[in-house]
Amino acid sequence: MNVLLATSQSLPLLFAADETGPDAALISFMIYTVAVFVLAALSNRLLKSKSFLSEYFLGSRGLGVWAFALTFAATSSSGGSFTGFPSKIYSHGWILALWIGSYMVVPICTMGLIGKRLNQIARRSGSITVPDVIRDRFHSPLLGLMAVSLIVFFMSFNLVAQFKAGSLILQTLLDGVTIFERTADGLAQAVSDIPFLSDGVSPEYLLCLFVFGFAVIVYTTYGGFHAVVWTDVMQGIVMVIGVIIMLPLAISQAGGLEHTTKLMAKMTPPRYSAPDKGGITLTLDKPVAEDTRIEIGSWITDKPIADSKVPLLFRVTAAAEIPAGETSIDEVKVIQLTTLEDIERILGRREKENFLEGVSVSNIDLVQYAYGEEESQQGAYVVGPGPSPSSNNGFLPLSLAISFFFMWAISGTGQPANMVRLMAFRDTKTLQRSICTVAIYYTLIYFPLVVIFCCARVILPGMEGESDRIMPAMAVYLTENIGMGWLAGLLVAAPFAAVMSTVDSFLLLISSAWVRDVYQRNINPEASEKTIKLLSYLATFVVGTAAMVVAINPPQFLQDIIVYVGSGLAASFLAPIVYGLYWRRVNAIGAMGAMLGGFSLHLAMYVTGYFRNGSFFKPYQLFDFDPIIVGLFGSFICGFIVTKLTAPPPQELVEKFFYKEKAGS
User: Fold this and answer.
1) Are 96 and 459 in contact (CB under 8 A)?
2) Most confident of 38-52, 354-368, 399-413, 497-511
3) 396 and 545 in one domain?
4) Which of 36-50, 369-383, 589-603 has the lowest mean pLDDT?
5) Distance CA 325, CA 292 (A)
6) In Å, what is the CA distance from 590 to each residue of 225, 331, 564, 640?
7) How far apart are CA 532 and CA 537, in angstroms?
8) Per-residue pLDDT, 216
9) Using CA atoms, how far apart are residues 651 and 585, in angstroms rounded to an integer?
10) What transmembrane ranges does the database entry give (predicted)?
11) What is the pTM of this model?
12) Residue 326 sits in which domain range?
């Protein structure tokens, strides 16, 4: 099969580059990856000298300020922060500063609200996992198993999203590397007879998925919690350095922040092909000799319509095939740029872009954004509520802005992955110092990201169809423009580090749920350390491999999955944890009511959205509020009512967890 690239230089690259750039970036990236495996090997040595379970899943509760702060921050700064979040900024503009603004107070809410108390209860009960804490605090194996089920349910979704993010990042870095292209071609031939691996799956994506999956599964399985913590520290440093380097490069290459804002004020959203029908018809000058594939990201231009002086410029958003002997293909999925400055910018560097030559366009059937293109909505990329393809109210009306303030500031407190970190710090002084450290760290990460990817709208227009790749695409473009292609390896390592630090934490969370909370605590309490060790390795490996297999055909919307998982976990876990830590009267049935009430209400709004809006990831919004608000409110109310209607917990259980603390503890 031919691939219809037909640029003026016939290069299968998203960007033009010198021959040494991609290879240099690959070398710098490989050095970073080797460092990760070295840390895993060092961590494995600790497992031989300490209690396996406590060390493998909790690091023996001995984390200091920098280790605790950076592993907490790196775990929270997931693939969504460096893949989905930049995608949202690129797609909706400056309003994302308000969308993420409350993240600066996440450390105060999460660490300050439950950190010290959770750490104390975990130490008293000897708990190693979050279900451990819940089971022991309420003396209820059933409640512990319910917590395990919800963690596995939500984290499995998130793992798949993170595997997709890591693979896309790696794929963008390796575009144009000769050995990568050859290996991908070989892999395509090797799996050509396996429908699951070949139908609709890019061999480049598949190769990157296998490489990423192998790396993160092996070092997490081998090194355990300390490997995760130490690599999180390194990854946290890499993330903030990468952002700090990208910020001045993006501002300077976009022509300055003032210039960028003025251009964004003139921008109108692209028109796009509806998912079920529509697009454009492409007609070639002559029939193709064999089946020919039109790749995603290819540019197509045609003469202006009627008296318009603005050329038509389209970018392919879904690969299409022209059968042998044919000269045309209908309903090619594209986006059409509508801003003159963007069109002129792309046409001005035509020799560096992937343009299809010898084609004409007809039967244009595209949809305009629901909000952002009307004259009264001009400047939507610089003022709220931001452009939206589906909502007449825009991307972020005031009610949703309030919802997302609670989503990030409050729901982070209900994340089991964060709770595990809170069970592992050394002492109260460590917690206090870490709150300030993480707040500063988030400020250095998220506000610069808003600026960088607003600049990306000016530098790289037309990427709405593959906006999840905007972070690595910007890294490659910015560094090659200054003749430092090797630096792309470090910049791409930043989002890659964010994904790895999240995946390794989720892997341990799920494997600990199976090994500790299901097997040891319910099936075989007398299991030997050797058996637990073997099962821990096996569970981590199997869970990671399963997520990697599902990610071969991943869901499309990364950030939507992350929002669903994050808000769902908070709706399920925040109320029972807060009640368990601070309310003596709450009992196991009340905690169960809070957990099931929050989960059910949250899920119901997403399911209702599926039937009313046609997509699971467009949830129904009660009184225009996001499901997280309804879920959290319902969870606390259900827990309170059920507790009041049932008998109080045994007095000895209350005394165990609520006796007066000694001074200085």
Assistant:
1) no
2) 354-368
3) yes
4) 36-50
5) 10
6) 32, 55, 25, 7
7) 9
8) 78
9) 10
10) 26-44, 56-74, 94-114, 142-161, 204-225, 237-257, 395-414, 435-460, 486-514, 534-555, 561-582, 589-608, 628-647
11) 0.77
12) 270-368
